């Protein structure tokens, strides 16, 4: 009789928690823990494909990366001159979680609470 035990080590939720922990360790000086906020009205929200992109934007803008966790999702924001740049881990569905973990697939444009579309952004070079 064969017995199979699933530990969840490879599950998207576990990978997401590990990814968030790695971000928090590596970028601790750049992070500011905050309570969840809503994006400013009429402010475009740009989804970035990798946290390193968000960190680069924060450094170039002289801003901290705002961070909070809620409902199994970690949100990281940079607010700069009327534009909100966002990176998320721990998305509820496996597809979004896989995309946020740095896989090459590009997420489809999404909309925010302002009704404005969000677009993926990746910085290349300096």
From TrEMBL:
This is DUF5305 family protein. It comes from the Bacteria. The lineage of its organism: Bacteria, Bacillati, Actinomycetota, Actinomycetes, Jatrophihabitantales. Residues 110-126 have a biased composition (Low complexity). It comes from Jatrophihabitans lederbergiae. Residues 1-20, 96-126 are annotated as: Disordered.
